[in-house]
Design a protein that fits this description.
The chain has 303 residues and is of the alpha/beta class. It folds into 2 domains: 96 residues, no CATH class; 176 residues, Alpha/Beta hydrolase fold, catalytic domain (Rossmann fold, 3-Layer(aba) Sandwich), CATH 3.40.50. 42% of the residues lie in helices and 15% in strands. It contains 9 helices and 6 strands. Helix 2 runs parallel beside helix 5 and helix 4 packs antiparallel against helix 5. The longest helix is centred in the N-terminal third of the chain and has 24 residues.
Length: 303
């Protein structure tokens, strides 16, 4: 651990302690709203965002008609819809938490229009792009469009017979992680974990729930979507995460051990705080999992 990390650790513990849920959050008159209320959006910004939403919605409706009978292109419509839904929800449910997110939302609407234009022309350049890409799928749970981030290796050159390794990375806790922020972050940066010659899938997980409930299903639906569009090796899929993402990693490792080549949870607890160390160690010995040492180091996957 670096000197800077040692300096930051007490501060992080203090912050987590202040914001963590506890018995007080179970009192009906003291329950915190999650996500917290966002900032007020000015009339001019609201009108501009609504106009952009209306324009993109119109394009999406027109695409449904224009692409009728063109199944391959119509299947890519969620890649456009994720931009509309992200901004719509942020505006409708007061999920802009910083004034800087408003121009970000405008840019997302523009990106949605750009993708819509490409689909209308029979093209989808983002499906063969490398580096950080954001994709979307239609969930079987409720028919909603859901985003996920994907880091595509530079070695990917379709069409190819080569099957690639894929690693999941589960995000940590972030109560202001709106879909606007998630999409913007995932298409702007590959993240800290970028193994060579491998895909990295960043699920949104239906917000901030440690990939539980609908967030658990989100993993499998996102994986199904990725495998439909990219050549993934079923024998080289692993799960990783840190903090809340580490807890999610533990969940998938012990509930579905036969699906992963490896699991590398960092910091996340597999059970409530009362769990014993021996229980955690025993769980980590199940086939298909590797336990992080807690120092941030994990064994590499070589097969």
């Amino acid at each position: 651990m670096t000197a800077r990390s040692l300096w930051l650790f007490p501060l992080l513990v203090m912050v987590v302690g202040v914001r963590a849920d506890g018995p007080g959050d179970n009192l009906p008159d003291k329950v915190r709203r999650i996500p917290p209320p966002g900032i007020a959006v000015g009339d001019e910004d609201r009108a501009a965002l609504q106009a952009g939403l209306d324009q993109l919605a119109k394009e999406i409706d027109a695409l449904r008609a224009a692409l009728k009978g063109k199944t391959a292109l119509l299947d890519l419509l969620p890649d456009v819809q994720i931009y509309h839904k992200a901004v719509l929800f942020a505006l409708k449910y007061q999920e802009f938490h910083n004034a800087k997110e408003i121009p970000v939302a405008r840019n997302l609407l523009k990106q949605g229009l750009d993708r819509a234009k490409s689909l209308r022309e029979g093209q989808a350049p983002w499906t063969t792009a490398t580096g950080p890409v954001v994709r979307g799928y239609l969930s079987k749970i409720d028919g909603s469009v859901q985003p996920y981030g994907l880091v595509v290796p530079a070695s990917y050159r379709p069409p190819t017979a080569h099957q690639f390794r894929l690693d999941f990375w589960f995000h940590g806790r972030g109560e202001t992680l709106s879909e606007v922020n998630f999409i913007n972050g995932r298409q702007g940066s590959p993240g800290e974990f970028v193994p060579p010659n491998a895909f990295v899938l960043h699920p949104y997980g239906r917000y901030c729930n440690a990939n539980k409930f609908a967030g658990e299903v989100d993993l499998f639906e996102a994986l199904e979507h990725v495998k439909k569009h990219y050549p993934i090796d079923d024998n080289r899929i692993s799960v990783r995460g840190f903090s809340m993402g580490g807890a999610a990693c533990w969940q998938f490792a012990v509930h579905y051990p036969g699906l992963w080549a490896a699991a590398a949870p960092g910091a996340g607890s597999p059970r409530p705080p009362s769990s014993s160390t021996s229980s955690r160690t025993r769980r980590s010995s199940r086939p298909g999992t590797r336990r992080s040492s807690g120092t941030g180091t994990t064994a590499p996957i070589t097969r």
